[in-house]
Amino acid sequence: MCSVSTFSYLLFYALFTVLINAQCTNPTVRREWRTLDRDGRAAWISAVKCLAASPHNPDLVATVNSSISQIPALTRRLPSGTVDISYIHMDLNVRIHQTGMFLPFHRWFVHSVEQAMVEKYGFSGGFPYWNWTIDAPDFYKSSWWQDSDTESGLGGWGDPDKDYEVQDGAFAGFALANPSYHPMRYQYTAQPFAAFAASSPTIAQFFNSTMLETYANSTFHADQIAAIIAGNPSDLVNFQLSPDNWIVNAVIRYPSYPDLREIFFFQCAHGSVHAITGRDLAGTCPATTEDCIPGNKWWPNSPLFFLHHVMIGKIWSDWQNLNETSTTAFAGGSVQAFDNTTYFAEYPTRAPPMLNTSSDIYTDNMFPGATIGDVSNHTTGYLCYVYE
Ligand SMILES: [Cu+2]
Questions:
Q1: Which segments cross the bilayer (predicted)?
Q2: How many domains does the chain have?
Q3: Helices and strands counted in the chain (H then E)
Q4: Which of 122, 278, 332, 355: CA 20 to 30 A from 47?
Q5: For residue range 40-88, what is the model confidence (pLDDT) as tens digits?
Q6: What value, to the nearest 5°, has the Cα angle with vertex 361 and ends 358 and 364?
């Protein structure tokens, strides 16, 4: 059941948290999903569902011009919490992907969702993560998709006869409202890039035939992720190009690289996990939605989005831990610049205006704000967690 905390408790908790976290003497621990016991998994799922069923946040406001974001106006139909959380990501899409804001925004976003679960629904904290390198060798049949427990299981692949709606586990029939009402869906998609390129001429220009046929799971094996981390010490620019950005950077930055395929592997880990899981984690339109523009907008529809992004945050953290200067390093611009390949190459972590550690993370007024510097080091005051 979703018991909402009283105001006085909230206030007490907030003050308590501020006092404790100023020192970060007692960090929460982020663990791989499969190392949690059944109660731990059920507690996280319960808090996610409570958040999804929570009232709309009346303060949430779209800040990107709709001619750019290409999303419908925010409607406040049920289900509610899920609508808001995926809507902020839909609105800010062009500012938080393929820009310097990618890593900071998503770290802040997960933290904010976690805080809401803790403060409102008694979640004890310690957001789990999905180490998909375990699943890379045989993604379709991996243990990740085998837990159908109705309280603690994440369920399996969707039913192809029902628009790939998930039929088992705790999120079977999980109701979503973006881009229109539908139950949550996953579709195993081994080679997702051809369809992805076909969806956008702007993006298609960056693909070559090899890339179009690449198997998504061939980009996120454990040894490849280890190479991304170890291969870019103190080089945040090149590190960022690895887990976040798609193929585009590889083609433009390394046009004469002898083995483009190898570079491509390192680019794609983040997007490949989205794409191979398909449907709601990949921004595919529901079969019943008319006038729908697919893309990466409503990725947070799926609770897996957050487990995935805690893993991305862990990879960033592992890189930061290589040396002291990397813990607070930042580099990146605020504009995507897809349509200008010269510009795109000139600014590998995207174009001016440039961001810095004092820059505010975009919030759409949905959650309390923070700066990029606030989320650089997750073991200090603002965030205060460690990975295990
Ligand atoms: Cu995102």
A1: none
A2: 1
A3: 15, 6
A4: 278
A5: 999 999 999 999 999 889 899 999 998 888 888 877 665 677 789 999 9
A6: 145
Which residue, among 9, 24, 3, 136, has the nearest Cα to 383 in the 3D structure? 24
As given in the structure block, the two tokens for residue 282 are 């990949």
Spatial distance between the Cα atoms of 244 and 163, rounded to a whole number of angstroms = 28
Rounded Cα gap, residues 343 and 171, in angstroms: 43
Strands 333-335 and 351-354: antiparallel
- How much distance in Å is there from the Cα of 93 to the middle of ligand 1? 7
Give the count of beta carbons closer than 10 Å to the beta carbon of residue 7.
Answer: 8
Q: Is residue 1 part of a domain?
A: no
Top-confidence residue, 385 or 348: 385
d(C-alpha 94, C-alpha 99), whole Å: 8
Cα 302 to averaged position of ligand 1 atoms, centre (Å): 12
Asked whether residue 2 is assigned to any structural domain, the reply reads no
The CA angle 330-232-247, to the nearest 5 degrees, is 85
For ligand 1, the distance from its centroid to the CA atom of residue 38, given in whole angstroms, is: 28
| Gap between the Cα atoms of 106 and 359, Å rounded | 15
Confidence band (pLDDT; 50, 70, 90) for 250? very low
CATH number for the domain harbouring residue 158: 1.10.1280.10
Ligand 1 centroid distance, CA of 310 (Å): 12
Instruction: Tell me whether residue 171 is in a domain.
Output: yes
Q: How far is the CA of 97 from the centre of ligand 1 (A)?
A: 6
Q: What's the CA-to-centroid distance between 237 and ligand 1, angstroms?
A: 19
Q: Which two tokens stand for residue 104?
A: 């900071």
* Peptide bond just before 201 cis, omega within 30 deg: no
In whole angstroms, what is the distance from residue 158 CA to residue 113 CA?
A: 26
- Å from CA of 352 to ligand 1 middle: 20
Average pLDDT, the chain: 84
pLDDT digits (tens, 9 = 90+) for 155-196: 999 999 999 999 999 999 999 988 888 999 999 999 988 887
Any domain includes 191: yes
Domain around 148: 7-387
pLDDT value at residue 292: 85
